[in-house]
Each structure stands twice: as structure tokens, then as C-alpha cells.
Design a protein that fits this description.
single chain, alpha+beta
């Protein structure tokens, strides 16, 4: 399946069954990140996963080079998704994959022109986690159990412009052992 001596690409629909078949060729890949897998699963469950040009990459021999988190998320959430697939790549191309910085909720907010985006993203994420799970979930570092997507954060800020005022207020709190995120959440 998808074995080729020349580099080819196409947009395909990945079903959970196809994802499972492709994962059988997932040898020699990096360890699964529970945090990243949780984010991808959450995005797929919320129908936020869109065809965006990021490809599942496959070596000449059919081995998965990039895309294992998406494939696992498809299987685990029983979700079908469209994706670009590139196959016929040399094995050594894997070493240069994912070398760039991941785009964060803070980055997405900055692109939309918001200020203090690190605090805005952190406080908004904490509010979402507190509403969905608990205050403890909002301030814990165990993020793989409480995944919030970038789209959730951006949509919330867009719907509630008062969150930007909350950030300005939260950063003025005197430092009493609380992070800005926790101060904003509690305020």
C-alpha cells in the first residue's frame, strides 16, 4: 500500500480502518506523545480537524515517516478525515521532519492581532478546562488528560472580548504565589 520509487502526493480520505492498516507500517518512528495525541483526538472529536496541507508522509517501502498521531487519533476516536498523503520519500528525510516550531493558541491569537497573547491563551485555556473538568484540571500540568484545542481558545476569545480585559486585570495582581493563569482564572 502506497509503496513507490517516485515521490507522489494526493488527497485521500482516511477511515479508521485505513489508519489501522497504515499503522501496521509504523516501524522506526518516534514515541507517541500522549499530550499531542490528546490534542489531535480532541480536535477530531470536535470536528475541528481540517485539510490544511500537512501531509502524512510515507517512505518508499511503505513505512510511516510522519502522521502517526493523526492515524492513532482516527482509530481511537473512530473518525474519518481527509488529508494530503505523500509517498515515495527516502528514509533519511524523516530526520528533517517536524523540525519547526508548533503553532500555539498564543501564536494564533497574535496572528489575529490580540495583545498579551501568552497570558490570554493561558487564562482562556484554564477557563475552558475549569468549565469542562475542574479547577484542578485548569491548573495542573497533566495536559494530556485535559486537552484544549487552539480553535477552542480562539473561538472563545472571539466570542468573549472581555477576556482581553481580564488579562489586563490579572497581570496587575500582586504576586502572591499565583501564576497569571491562576490569578486570571480565579478573578
Amino acid at each position: 500500500m502506497f509503496i513507490s520509487d517516485t515521490i507522489k502526493s494526493e488527497v485521500i480520505t482516511v477511515t479508521p480502518r485505513l489508519a489501522k492498516q497504515l499503522l501496521e507500517q509504523n516501524t522506526g518512528n518516534r514515541k507517541i506523545s500522549k499530550t499531542n495525541l490528546a490534542r489531535v483526538k480532541t480536535a477530531m472529536e470536535r470536528n475541528e480537524w481540517v485539510l490544511n496541507g500537512e501531509a502524512i508522509k510515507i517512505a518508499k517501502d511503505g513505512r510511516i515517516l510522519d502522521g502517526q498521531h493523526r492515524l492513532h487519533a482516527s482509530v481511537e476516536t473512530d473518525t474519518t478525515f481527509d488529508t494530503l498523503i505523500v509517498y515515495g520519500l527516502d528514509d533519511d528525510t524523516q530526520e528533517s521532519m517536524d523540525a519547526g516550531k508548533s503553532r500555539t493558541a498564543s501564536d494564533a491569537l497574535a496572528i489575529r492581532g490580540y495583545k498579551s497573547t501568552h497570558s490570554l491563551a493561558a487564562i482562556t485555556t484554564a477557563i475552558i478546562k475549569a468549565e469542562q473538568w475542574s479547577i484542578k484540571a485548569a491548573v495542573t500540568t497533566a495536559s494530556s488528560f485535559y486537552a484544549v484545542t487552539t480553535k477552542q481558545v480562539v473561538d472563545r476569545v472571539e466570542r468573549e472580548p472581555a477576556l482581553t480585559d481580564l488579562v489586563r486585570t490579572a497581570v496587575k495582581f500582586p504576586k502572591v504565589g499565583l501564576s497569571g493563569k491562576t490569578a486570571g482564572l480565579l478573578y
